[in-house]
Amino acid sequence: MGLSAIWRWPLVLAGLTLFGLLSALLGEGGVWWVLSWIALAVPLLTIVYCSVRALLHAGGMPPLRTTR
Amino acid sequence: MATVRSLRRWAFVHKWTSLACTVFLLILCLTGLPLIFREELRELLSDDPPYAVLPADAPLANLDSVVETARRRHPDHLVWFVFVDDDEPQILVGLLPSATALPAEARRIKFDARTGEVLKEIEPAARRPFDFLDLMLRLHKDLFADLPGELFLGFIGLLFIASLVSGVALYGPFTKKLGFGAVRRDRSRRVKWLDLHNLLGVVTLAWALVVGLTGVMNELATPLFQIFQRTDVQAMLQPYRGQPPPAPADLASVQDAYALVQRTMPERRPTSVVFPNDRIGSPHHYLVWTKGSSPLTARLFTPVLVDARTGALTAAVQMPWYLRALEVSRPLHFGDYGGLPLKIIWALLDLVTIVVLASGLYLWLSRRRSPLEARLAELESAADGA
Hints:
The structure holds two protein chains of two kinds. By secondary structure, chain A is mostly helical. Helix content of chain A is about 75%, strand content about 0%. Chain A is built from two helices and no strands. In chain A, helix 1 runs antiparallel to helix 2 (about 30-55). Chain A is flat and about 45 Å long. By secondary structure, chain B is α+β, with helices and mostly antiparallel strands. An eight-stranded antiparallel sheet of chain B has the order 4-3-2-1-5-6-7-8, with helices on one face. In chain B, a hairpin with a 5-residue loop joins strand 3 (about 105-110) and strand 4. In chain B, helix 1 packs antiparallel against helix 4 (about 130-140), helix 1 (about 1-35) crosses helix 5 (about 145-175) and helix 6 runs antiparallel to helix 11 (about 340-365). In chain B, about 30% of the residues are buried. The chains are: A mainly alpha, B alpha+beta.
């Protein structure tokens, strides 16, 4: 895997996290709060997604390949 | 191969900074968890008498008579501050047994903000048994060791940041052959936990960095306020040098000082009035803390000095950059600025961090030959073969 492939998702998640942290702080409530919750929930959902995927493909399936 | 040598160095940094801070970080994460919900818990655990039911626009009680009531109840004490809450209809008056007493010796009286009735006497923290939240806060903030404890935990925070940065340096080489988020369950338990450690760590990285850095900043609050007091505040008090501070009987009306600030700065809301003192503030002034109304400016406090003898407005103090940084650090560390959903997210991220810490500890404890070593050896042999 190249450098960009390794860091693509970590960078997207870091960007979403920073957006989520700042939008609730700088925005005037309302929609900015909701955007903050959504942005900050993505990293958590990523963990859930990857864990479930690992459980479903217990045979050591490499990620993002759906057929055996 | 140079990269392998630099990787070894990063591995060394990651191992030792993590080992040095993990136990303390586990304490911080565990005690921080209930602190995220401290407002909710405090409300739940509170046995305070209820407020009077009055229309929402009922006027505020006169601060002079509130202070007078507090003085009458404790004639041997000095009034330290009056706090006018904007969340709840309460006014708190803080009283100290002497001018040199510690904050932990302060007693507080809670008033209904509209009727001016006394609702509760709050004993000094030094004499009151710790409640659950006090205990969590002290463990989280200073391990019951006051300033040395704060500085120590600030240093632990720096180690945590070093551990995060070195972890990032190792993440790339370790996950190169796997896709993002791969968790290998078919190999050993350690491999599975290594993958989870990498996944959970990298996913929560930005949050952990922000909470770590702002935590360090919060631990520096005491020295930062002392610097402010010794430099900027002293410079403002230059014209008063040599004058005797006003006696309690000579003090101008608090109510007038509060109202004056309200009138002069209509865009800001005065939250508390600190009485003349030698510590944080001025021996010649009422120090009125004011805050803005937007989510961010409500966190940025500007102190306004009102001459305690004449009742005239002296100046609004410009807060230095380091105190502004401290003020912005508070919400970003506490997670209390986006409603209950944000707090729940904060708690979940905190729990994930606990798993990262515990799995890191597990990976170190269960090493026969650590996966780090094995992986480095693998890289080295690959480099030799090339």
